[in-house]
Known about the structure:
By secondary structure, the chain is an alpha+beta fold. The chain has three helices and two strands. It is 39% helix and 15% strand. It comes from Candidatus Collierbacteria bacterium CG09_land_8_20_14_0_10_46_12.
Amino acid sequence: MDNLVTYGQTFSKGQLTIPKKFRDFYGLGENFAYIMTHQNQQIIIEPQEKKSKTKNLATALAKIKEPIFSEEDYNLYLQGRKDWNKRMKKLGIE
Length: 94
């Protein structure tokens, strides 16, 4: 699509909207990352891959072959919960 031209204006605080025909043409979703640069008196905006922290964390966790917590860690966690519940009960919060 060589004739992809549109006009627009910025909003308060310098916000601008990328027109739907551009988003559709480039396959941009609702939330996408971009890099903005300038070159030869022009502003250049290029879409970037959005880095997903969730995906990276899930991938890292999936690679772990051994238990993350030992039985001792789990028992300490359970004891901490019991202590917490006792304190809450003493304060009248249940």
